[in-house]
Request: fold
Amino acid sequence: HKKYIKAIKNGNTSYFYNSRAWRKKRQEILERDNFECRRCRELGKVTTTNEVLEVHHIKELDKHPELGLDNDNLITLCKSCHNYYHERFEYSKDNKPKIDIPEGGRDGIK
Reply:
């Protein structure tokens, strides 16, 4: 785990994301969340298996590398919600999502 933290702190997140540990953890989180976007579920939407699902770090990886593999810091989001959360592409700061995630982690997700 220390080698991933060091790599992330040095700006080499690809080393982390290409690791066997991340691929295994990612699969574990997808299964825990029933292959469903947690934000869509909160909004009453159904995420289909046709959606691209991503595992999101609640506390950003580059700022909190020690939480990179922490279950309580990871949630499943569809690509659209992940982009929305990070204000990428068509989403602006004014439309930042309100994902109700307490400091304690995933237990705040309904």
